[in-house]
Amino acid sequence: MSDKQIISWDEYFMGLAHLSAKRSKDPNTQVGAVIVNEEKRVVGIGYNGMPYGCDDKVFPWARVGDTYNTKYAYVVHAELNAILNSIQKLSGCTIYVSLFPCNECAKAIIQSGIKHIVYESDKYCGTETNLASKRMLKAAGIDWKQLETTVDVHVEVVRNPELPEE
C-alpha cells in the first residue's frame, strides 16, 4: 500500500466528524465533532441535534422567523454534544469539527480544557459571533487550524448478505 492511500490522522478524525454529522436531522447544516486525546484516542463525539427527550419531529428546524419557532433556540451543537458525551477529562485534547465553532461552543471548548481545534469550513468567517469566538479562543491560548483538504464520507447502507432472506 502506498503512502498516497493512507490518510493522515487529521483526515481520519475529520472523517469521523463527518460520519457523526450524518446522524444530524438538520435539513440545512449537518455538523460533526470528534474529541481526541494526546494518544490519538477518541474520547468524545457528537453532532448537531435536539436535546435528549425533545422530539426532532416536533421541534422546529426553520432558520427564519422568531427565535421560538426556529432551530436556534433548541439545537445542541456538535461541539457541545461531543464535550457532554466525553469519557474523560478533556485537558489538552484536540477537537475536530467540520465547521468552525460558534461563540457559544468556543466558551464550552475553553471551559472543558480542550487546547486545539482542527476544522474544515469557516463559512461564517468575519461575522460578529465568529470574531467573538476567535477573540475568546485566542485569549484562552487555544490554537486552531483549517485543514488544507476536505474529507468526503460516503456511506451506503445495504442489507447484510449473510442474513437469511425474509
Lateral strand order in the biggest sheet: 2-1-3-4-5
Number of helices: 4
Helix content: 25-40%
What's the order of the H and E elements? Answer: HEEHEHEHE
Largest sheet: 5 strands, mixed
The Rg value, from CA coordinates, equals 17 Å
**Low-confidence runs of at least 5 consecutive residues:** none
Global geometry: globular
Structural class: alpha/beta
Distance between the termini: 40 Å
Mean pLDDT: 95
Number of strands: 5
How much strand content do the residues show?
Answer: 15-25%
Description:
The protein is α/β, with parallel strands linked by helices and 166 residues long. It is 25% helix and 16% strand. It has helices at residues 9-21, 78-84, 103-112, 128-139; strands spanning 32-36, 42-47, 94-99, 116-121, 143-146. Strands 2-1-3-4-5 form a five-stranded mixed β-sheet, with helices on both faces. Strand 4, helix 4 (128-139) and strand 5 form a beta-alpha-beta unit. The longest helix is centred in the N-terminal third of the chain and has 13 residues, at 9-21.
List descriptors.
single chain, 166 residues, alpha/beta, globular
Explain the layout of strands and helices.
Layout: H1 9-21, E1 32-36, E2 42-47, H2 78-84, E3 94-99, H3 103-112, E4 116-121, H4 128-139, E5 143-146
Parallel strand pairs: 3-4, 4-5
Antiparallel strand pairs: 1-2, 1-3
Helix pairs in contact: 3-4
